Amino acid sequence: MANNDVIIKIEHLSKSFDDKKVLNDINLEVRRGEFVTLLGPSGCGKTTLLRILAGFIASDEGTVSLDGKDLLGVPPYRRPLNTVFQRYALFPHLDVYDNIAFGLKLQNVPEDEIDERVRKVLKMVVMSDYEERDVESLSGGQQQRVAIARALINQPKVLLLDEPLAALDLKMRKDMQIELKEMHRKLGITFIYVTHDQEEALTLSDTIVVMNGGKIQQIGTPADIYNEPVNSFVADFIGESNILNGTMLSDRRVNFIGHDFDCVDEGFGENVPVDVVIRPEDIYIMNNTEKTQFTGTVNSCTFKGVHYEMFVDTDEGFEMQIQDYNAFEPGSHVGLIIKPSDIQVMHKERTCNTIKGRVIDAGHVELMGTSFECDAHDFEPDSEVEARIDFDKIDLLDDKEDGTLTGEVGFILYKGDHYHLTICIDEKSANYLYVDTNDVWDKCDMVGVRILPEDIHLGRPKAAPLGKAEGLEAIP
What we know:
This protein is 18% helix and 39% strand. It contains 8 helices and 30 strands. The strands form 6 sheets. The protein has a 6-stranded mixed β-sheet with strand order 6-7-8-3-9-10, sandwiched between helices.
């Protein structure tokens, strides 16, 4: 990318509120005229990033430049960008014309120029006949157009949009998506858009920035993000997915759900644990079970308007989500096929919990600030160790007081025959555990954590990349 194509450059940006780090070393380049969407769940840091760009809050670390000039020391009203908020913040005592013209009047722009620019921008947002209307008499979609017009009239280099369509009903939101895309095409200015709506991001964006836990997980085109997710969070968050444990047998050959499949991925090695992503629309389902790769039984079938959504129990005991234009009744025995090009293989982020600790004595080790019983006879007291604990060797308890540790259920990933959970022990210290379980838990449940002595395996510490230990950082 040529430097003159970059309008905004963000480097090593971090921000904390109290003890919570909401942005953690953000690095991003935005090209001139690009429609960039910051996408992620609530609390991922996307709105904080937008507010730092707008100048409403200050960052703790890092730099932001616009056209090569430092932006962080510039007050909001002097930045060549404007913000459209989720709540439109229109002035109820002013009509449409005066709401749009308000900023220009503060700048003492001549009346004839104000009039010309207001009428031009009203035409752009399809509101030409509404100049004298009371803004409170307008529909939600019309109010949003007025808010966008008020931002555009200042001719910003960058337009920031903070979930601007969230308050609209579904049909109006889809209509406004089309209008926003058309406005962007006509104006040619840079749009930076915040949303938690995956479909909205896929519809509008040139580039999507997927965020979680204050970090950027993946940057790419909508097609790249959907078809080539880099980790399980992105695969799970963007659209529907079957995310399954697998083993890469060799180049272009992978095993999952108890069967071997041809695929197009290579370079993983042989007999290497991997994650496999299959989109529900990429599984072919048929009544004829001959010459199919595997079979299953339909346990539910729901009409979704465009397609039917079915859940099928496979012959090896895995549950698969399938979308098809044809309905297969519950109880039907069906044949299933997955094409090699529709199998996405990803490196596993971790294969077990690996935690740095300290030996207390021959029978105890300190992990995550807590003493655990285990066999530490082979290690000197006060020496550093590395504890490895398998995902399925950690028990979660309803009563948090019954556990050695207390944690909060975070990211929940269904793997076809079990759940893979992220348990936050201490967010400030980035202490997390990862647990495989057949029990159903809800996000934010507080749980007790129990680990038996025989399930803690100690070893000498290994050097971790970038000074971080595997298993101590939240799933991206």
